[in-house]
Specification:
The complex is a heterodimer of chains A (about 200) and B (about 375).
Chain A lengths: L13 H4 L2 H26 L29 E2 L14 H5 L5 E7 L7 E9 L8 H5 L5 E2 L16 E2 L1 H6 L15 H14 L2
Antiparallel strand pairs in A: 1-4, 2-3, 3-5
Chain B lengths: L1 H36 L18 H13 L10 H18 L9 E3 L2 E3 L9 H22 L3 H32 L4 H7 L3 E2 L3 E2 L2 H4 L1 H14 L23 H26 L8 E2 L9 E3 L5 E3 L2 H27 L7 H31 L1
Antiparallel strand pairs in B: 1-2, 3-4, 5-6, 6-7
Classes of the chains: A alpha+beta (about 200), B mainly alpha (about 375).
Chain lengths: ~200, ~375
């Protein structure tokens, strides 16, 4: 059985039905704002320190701080030697709900890594900025933390991002991904492995 | 003879400039006032050599844009009617001001010059007649555009304006009965009397209900929110759909000029016109010009000071009433169309008729 909940319209009192008192109440609210802000504007023009007369952020000149979790334009990170961190494992391409990532894998010249992306393309017009690719990546190679939000262009081609474009914003980062990297955490882990093996 | 013509032309120039300036400033005030009410900033980007004048340059930019925009005529529209409809929207508004006194009569070299373009015994009927003509602008615009949506908007507009015209007419009968004249000039003179020796006999004091009926009805005539059903900017398209450039701008200018003129009509009929409370000129107070306070105080003032104060007082009242209309426009949500019609015919009209009946009975009892 569906639970029926009867809803009655609110009965207005005679005072409210005369309409004018309630209208005056509304006018009172907006007039308060008007005169308060007018006073603050005048005060500012006279060089006094007042509360801000508006909540507006003057956008192109003043920018609102972006949360570190905010998802914007993608970028591909690099290894310390400048090579892309991406190992072309296709995890992001698989995770992507919009199917907007296109990776072509190639054999890596670096002996420690099996594959690397010959091409890494993102169709930004299809992207829904869900961030699932970032979560899926085992190498921390793709990030959406550029804080870049003015995504506008004159043609569709401009939104088809290639590997070079994505790598341009990716500074080299170090992570305990494989031995040999001069990183404190890496050395520590290698030491633990050696200890376990009885060295 | 020719000096009369020069005086008349000068008065027309002053009034025309006043209305145009008012309308121009209102396009700016509309944006700035709504911004202040909503804790925003409003138009502030346009600048000439870095001078922004608090956004006033934006209004100039708007005017410039409208003038240079393409003037589009719908291919199957009625060319002549399409062209004259905006004139019908603007003309009645401007000529309405002719019968409103914006200051007391001037005495220059033994000659009395009334600060009123047209001294007309049937002044209020003249206002109502030209108010009725404003409907043609809306109807012609809707009809000549050869567009169903324009036509429907024109129909909504004409139905609304005709309905509220009746309320305007009926609510003005009350003040006419009290002051016993249809001439706005004499009406203003009558409003300087004092009730019981201390209360200025302003229209709003002797006819408060008439004012409460006149204000919304007059706002409905301007076709602005909360009565903007004929053409509601973003939500509902209407009679000015097929208009662009300065022809559309004329509808817009007509609306803003109507705010100025309505402010002036309300000031004249309900707020004592150019009168300042307790201020009497020499002719009115046994050659003792100045403030005669009800508690016996007397502040002498020169005749020219009195004229200046009265003209300023009229301007101030019109300004306040324009502010009120803006405040109302940006505070209340729009009526539904059936509510709009119900409020007019079933709620305001009986009240207006009752007001006339009660006023008549009271006048009869008082005069006995």
């Amino acid at each position: 059985m569906i639970d029926v909940k009867p809803v009655r319209n609110v009965e207005l009192s005679l005072w409210q039905k005369t309409y004018y008192p309630e209208l005056l109440k509304g006018l009172w609210v907006t007039s308060q704002h008007f005169f308060r802000n007018l006073g603050r504007h005048v005060g500012r023009a006279l060089g006094m320190k007042t509360e801000p007369p508006m909540v507006t952020i003057l956008y192109p000149e003043v920018r609102r701080p972006i949360s570190p979790r905010w998802r914007g334009l993608h970028r591909l990170m690099r290894r310390p030697d400048g090579a892309p961190r991406c190992v072309a494992c296709m995890m992001c391409e698989t995770a992507c709900p919009d199917k907007c990532i296109y990776i072509t894998a190639g054999e890596s010249p670096d002996g420690r890594v099996e594959k690397f992306p010959l091409a890494f393309e993102i169709d930004l017009l299809r992207c829904c900025f869900c961030g699932l690719c970032v979560e899926a990546c085992p190498e921390d190679a793709i990030r959406m933390d550029t804080g870049y939000l003015e995504l506008a262009g004159y043609s569709r081609e401009e939104f088809y991002l290639d590997r070079e474009f994505l790598l341009r914003r990716g500074e080299p980062t170090t992570h305990p991904q494989y031995p040999g990297e001069l990183d404190g955490a890496t050395v520590h882990r290698v030491d633990l492995v050696k200890l376990a093996k009885g060295h | 003879m020719w000096i009369d013509l020069v005086i008349l032309l000068a008065k027309i120039a002053v009034v025309f400039a006043g209305i145009m300036t008012g309308a121009f400033v209102l396009t700016w005030a509309e944006r700035k006032q709504s911004a202040l009410m909503a804790d925003r900033i409003g138009a502030n980007r346009c600048a000439i050599l870095g001078i922004k004048l608090w956004g006033l340059i934006n209004s100039l930019a708007d005017a410039l844009k409208l003038i240079f925009k393409e003037d589009f005529l719908p291919p199957k529209g009625l060319r002549v009617l399409h062209a004259i409809a905006p004139i019908f929207a603007m003309f009645p508004v401007f000529v309405t001001f002719a019968v409103l006194p914006f200051g007391p009569p001037l005495q220059i070299a033994g000659k009395e010059i009334p600060l009123q373009i047209l001294t007309l015994d049937i002044g209020l009927l003249y206002i109502l007649a030209f108010g009725g003509m404003a409907v043609y602008g809306v109807m012609l615009a809707g009809w000549a555009s050869n567009n169903k949506y324009s036509l429907l908007g024109g129909m909504r507009g004409s139905a609304q304006m005709i309905s509220y015209e009746i309320i305007i007419g009926l609510s003005l009968i009350g003040p006419v009965m009290v002051f016993g004249t249809l001439d706005p000039g004499r009406m203003v003179v009558a409003q300087n009397d004092l009730l019981w020796g201390w209360l200025p006999k302003w229209g709003i004091i002797v006819q408060p209900l008439a004012f409460l009926l006149f204000l919304p009805a007059a706002m409905a005539e301007t076709k602005r929110a909360p009565f903007d059903l004929p053409e509601g900017e973003s939500e509902i398209i209407g009679f000015s759909l097929e208009y662009s450039g300065m022809r559309w701008g004329m509808f817009f200018l007509g609306e803003f000029a109507e705010i100025v003129v309505l402010g002036a009509v309300m000031a004249t009929v309900f707020f004592g016109g150019y009168q300042v409370p307790y201020l009497f000129s020499g002719a009115e107070a046994a050659s003792l010009p100045g403030f005669h306070f009800p508690w016996g105080g007397y502040l002498p003032l020169g005749e020219w000071w009195i004229v200046a104060l009265r003209v300023l007082s009229f301007g101030f009242k019109v300004l306040c009433l324009m502010w009120l209309q803006m405040q109302i426009r940006w505070t209340f949500p729009r009526f539904r169309y059936d509510q709009l019609m119900r409020v007019s015919w079933r709620e305001m009209m009986p009240l207006a008729l009752a007001n006339i009946a009660v006023t008549g009975i009271v006048i009869m009892l008082v005069s006995r």
